[in-house]
Specification:
Distance between the termini: 51 Å
Largest sheet: 7 strands, parallel
Number of helices: 12
Number of domains: 2
Order of helices and strands: EHEEHHHEHHEHEHHHEHH
CATH class of the largest domain: Alpha Beta
Strand content: 5-15%
Shape: globular
Strand order of the largest sheet: 3-2-4-1-5-6-7
Structural class: alpha/beta
Length: 277
């Protein structure tokens, strides 16, 4: 059995930093976690990938093609579709090692995960290759300390969960960059009560304000009805925090349950020695 995380999220949410931190943490714990870069627009990252989609296709080449004339968003979609048409490249790069644990560092175009079928097809492919898949959706905590913005981010996370239909963990990233006041304010969003988060929007003055408040409350009701979206706060500088998140994800994909249990032989004392005593 093989294991992987599909690391998703908006641009700038800290996906590559997350992958680098998990790989480093695993190395310190005498454990191997590899990273695959699936962002054809990536310029730099702090890890050494076992496979890089830029060896197959680069966003600049797609955008500069005179026939296709794609922009950045269209180029990213085309690149991911091109990957699905050339899966033998990725399969050769990954090899056939059992008990692999791989992080797939994905592009920052959120449409790929929320409503398009590109990533769903990619997940189905990984499952055919005997991977247990966990979706990890990152959102910058700086944008999640307001009721309306939180509802928006939570709806995006819910869309990804419904679209991919795999075990899923939502992460609030960059907690270490929040101010003391921001961290205290964030506590009410970890286990959110959507009614309290939207109560200050009700009765907003003006037609647009009232409609905005009513819409936000309706979306909050959707989150309550599904009761699926919760967030794990991640401080990338805290090793214990990283370990807690990794344990949660490992439990989600049942990592280690198929591994052989290591035992140590125990020698019982001779009975004659016991009698002598």
């Amino acid at each position: 059995m093989r294991y992987c995380q599909i690391v998703m999220g908006p641009a700038g949410s800290g996906k590559s930093t997350y992958c680098a931190a998990l790989a480093t943490h695993a190395a310190d714990a005498k454990r191997t976690i590899n990273v695959v870069n699936l962002d054809p627009a990536a310029e730099r990252y702090n890890y050494t990938p076992v496979a890089d989609i830029r060896d197959l296709i680069q966003l600049e080449d797609v955008m500069e093609d005179e026939e296709m004339k794609f922009g950045p968003n269209g180029g990213l979609v085309f690149s991911m579709e091109f990957l699905l048409e050339n899966t033998e490249w990725l399969q050769d790069a990954l090899g056939e090692i059992e008990d692999d644990y791989i992080l797939f560092d994905c592009p920052g175009q959120i449409e790929l995960y929320t409503h398009m079928d590109v990533m769903r097809k990619f997940v189905d492919l990984l499952q055919e290759w005997n991977f247990r898949v966990c979706g990890v959706f990152l959102i910058d905590s700086h944008f999640m300390v307001d009721g309306g913005k939180f509802i928006s981010g939570a709806m995006a996370a819910l869309s990804v969960m419904v679209n991919l239909e795999v075990p899923h963990v939502n992460v609030l990233s960059k907690i270490d960059l929040l101010s003391v006041g921001g961290r205290k304010q964030l506590e009410r969003f970890i286990e959110p009560d959507t009614h309290s988060l939207t109560s200050d929007l009700q009765g907003t003055s003006g037609i647009l304000g009232e409609r905005y408040g009513d819409l936000t409350c309706s979306l909050a009701k959707v989150l309550d009805d599904y009761s699926l979206v919760k967030f794990f706060p991640l401080d990338i500088t805290n090793e214990e925090n990283i370990q807690d998140l990794l344990i949660m994800i490992d439990t989600t994909v049942q990592y280690g349950e198929d591994l052989d249990v290591k035992t140590q032989d125990f020698e019982y004392p001779d009975r004659e020695d016991d009698n002598d005593q």
